[in-house]
Design goal:
The complex is a heterodimer.
Chain A (H helix, E strand, L loop, with lengths): L1 E6 L4 E8 L3 E9 L1 H5 L6 H22 L9 E7 L3 H18 L3 E5 H12 L7 E6 L4 E8 L2 E7 L5 H12 L5 H9 L23 H13 L5 H26 L4 E5 L6 H14 L2 E3 L3 H4 L4 H14 L18
Parallel strand pairs in A: 1-4, 4-5, 6-9, 9-10
Antiparallel strand pairs in A: 1-2, 2-3, 6-7, 7-8
Helix pairs in contact in A: 2-3, 4-11, 5-6, 5-7, 5-8, 6-8, 7-8, 8-9
Chain B lengths: L2 E5 L4 E8 L2 E9 L4 H15 L9 E5 L5 H18 L3 E4 L1 H7 L7 E7 L5 E9 L2 E11 L1 H11 L3 E4 L1 H5 L1 H4 L5 E3 L9 H13 L30
Parallel strand pairs in B: 1-4, 4-5, 6-9, 9-10
Antiparallel strand pairs in B: 1-2, 2-3, 6-7, 7-8
Helix pairs in contact in B: 1-2
Classes of the chains: A alpha/beta, B alpha/beta.
The structure holds zinc ion.
Chain lengths: 331, 232
């Protein structure tokens, strides 16, 4: 079964064709990052306008690359939330229109669930249960995946998402946007032990908090204007990574996870990948660090999640809308 | 030649199908649900009522706005996807043109006025010509007082049509040469869209799906969307 996936929840316009949630026949991502860079963050109205402009050519390219320019897919899946409402509505509307014309099922996909399925596209035989650390500009979640469609939310951020903290700190340090890659690069030349930034709630459950860390960075730089930006970047990054890895590792041990999976845009952070790999080696669990293109928003993961949802729940109704604050369907 | 018309630029969601026989079926609703929830089933229902298959549609027409951005994009994104999947061309028409077209039989000056929120309206002026209407000024966005000033400056009788005209009675009701059209004409109609598009389609005045862009008339607000906390 070949599924066309569509993703427009934030600032990537993406379409992909995936066969049976395993084989990626095409995956096209048109990033709007340059459009938003001068604002230092994603501007919803700018994103929505770009989706309208980009989606038709992106879908066309995904179909052609999959060898399906006659448009014969077996279902169309689209992200319906969470995300920016105006952006989501572009993808949902287009996906339902395509499903109606082709007379195939439409499948509503939860963006967070799609991130969980990205790992299976690269390693279809992953053994469950898994602990997934989902970190992006929009989300910071620690999820126990017990089975397909069976998730337990172990923890989430109480304030800023991890990627949001990177963006805000990078903006404050004048490193530009997006903040994750900018801080990652700057940190290469810095000492991660130079400044002892706080590790909020390190031993305290599975929830996260990053706004205090951001404030500490601001206060430290104001008090020490001569401080090296590289050291601040490296120390900030280390503080974020320490909290993420400590909690993910503890969760994996507590729930007897067979593997630990990284998901979301922040999963591309080199320090996080390295620390996660070391932790998994030390604890004897299987690390899964999907490629950068699978961590960041893409439509292949949407098509994969759509396949699982379709086989479990059947098609979604054509009066489905978008939900900006959709949550992961947890047990 | 069958035309599918889609209009979601205002508070109303409407669609219609028709061709040389006129409009075969149409649907419109004004309600609190998201445009995206209403539109797709409405298209399916309208085609069913007209006893046509979507595969028989030869042109997809869409209201390009100006209007409410989020709703407008639902229609434009849906229309582009349908035209792409059907491999047919598209025709885009302004919401202001559609409002004026619906009252084309008046000899007066026609002012189409769409609510733009934030104390402003989108507006354009038209005149009846054989077979339709011709735009004489606009489109523009500004306070309703701009519309009143333009009417007063012209010094002739004027029919204002659209939700933007009804929204500001304090501006328009006192002007003696102005009449505001009823609420039933306050929103662009997909039936007008199908008829206007049919005339253009006969002259092959169509474009490719990727050439269609909404008519915003306003720059985007540069407000950053820290989307997230609530969603995780
Ligand atoms: Zn994401």
């Amino acid at each position: 079964m070949r599924i066309l996936g569509i993703e427009t929840s934030c600032d990537e316009t993406a379409a992909a064709v995936v066969a049976d949630a395993r084989e990626v026949l095409s995956s096209v991502v048109s990033s709007q990052v340059d459009l938003h860079a001068r604002y230092g963050g994603v501007v919803p109205e700018v994103a929505s306008r770009a989706h309208v402009e980009l989606l038709t050519p992106v879908v066309a390219q995904a179909l052609v690359e999959a060898g399906l320019d006659d448009g014969h897919v077996d279902a169309v899946g689209a992200t319906v939330g969470p995300g920016l409402i105006g952006a989501l509505l572009v993808g949902v509307s287009a996906a339902k229109a395509l499903a109606l014309v082709w007379d195939v099922p439409f499948v509503a996909v939860n963006h967070l669930e799609a991130h969980l399925y990205a790992a299976f596209l690269e390693e279809p035989e992953l053994e469950l249960p898994l602990v997934v650390l989902m970190v992006s500009g929009g989300h910071t979640l620690l999820v126990l995946m017990e089975g397909h469609g069976r998730y337990r939310l172990l923890g989430s951020t109480l304030d800023d998402a991890a990627g949001e903290a990177f963006d805000k700190v990078a903006r404050f340090l004048g490193l530009g946007y997006p903040g994750g890659p900018a801080i990652d690069a700057e940190a290469m030349a810095g000492d991660p032990t130079a400044i002892a930034f706080p590790r909020a709630m390190l031993d305290d459950g599975y929830d996260f908090s990053f706004s205090g860390l951001k404030t500490s960075v601001v206060n430290h730089v104001r008090k020490n204007p001569q401080v090296s930006t590289a050291d601040v970047s490296a120390s900030f990054q280390q503080a974020v990574v320490d909290v993420l890895v400590t909690k993910a590792r503890r969760a994996a041990a507590e729930y007897g996870a067979r593997g630990l999976v990284l998901a979301g845009g922040v999963a591309a952070n080199s320090q996080l990948r390295e620390s996660m790999l070391d932790a998994c080696m030390a604890d004897g669990i299987h690390p899964l660090l999907p490629s950068r293109s699978m961590c960041t928003d893409n439509a292949a993961m949407v098509a994969a999640a759509a396949w699982w949802r379709l086989s479990q729940d059947g098609p979604s109704p054509l009066d489905t809308g978008a939900q900006a604050n959709l949550r992961l369907p947890v047990l | 030649m069958l035309i599918l018309g889609i209009d979601t630029a205002t508070a109303q969601v409407s669609c219609a199908v028709g061709g040389h026989e006129g409009v075969l079926a149409s649907s419109h609703s004004i309600r609190a649900r998201q445009h995206a929830e209403t539109l797709t089933p409405a298209i399916a229902f309208t085609c069913q009522q007209a006893r046509i298959e979507l595969s028989e549609v030869s042109v997809v027409a869409v209201d390009l706005g100006p209007g409410l951005f989020t709703g407008l994009r639902v229609g434009v994104a849906s229309a582009k996807a349908m035209a792409h999947a059907l491999r047919v061309p598209m025709i885009g028409v302004s919401s202001l043109d559609l409002l004026a077209f619906a009252v084309r039989f008046t000899p007066r000056l026609i002012g189409a006025v769409v609510d733009a929120r934030r104390g402003e309206v989108y507006h354009a002026f038209y005149r009846q010509v054989p077979g339709g209407i011709q735009r004489v000024s606009g489109p523009a966005v500004g306070p309703p007082d701009d519309v009143a000033s333009e009417v007063l400056a012209g010094g002739e009788d004027c029919l204002l049509v659209g939700d933007g005209a009804l929204r500001y009675p304090e501006v328009f009701d006192g002007l003696h040469q102005v009449e505001v059209a009823d609420a039933e004409l306050a929103y662009p109609s997909a039936s007008s869209l199908v008829m206007l598009a049919h005339a253009r389609a006969l002259r092959e005045q169509w474009v490719k799906p990727w050439e269609i862009e909404p008519l915003y008339l306003r720059k985007p607000d540069a407000e950053i969307g820290w989307i997230t906390r609530e969603s995780s």
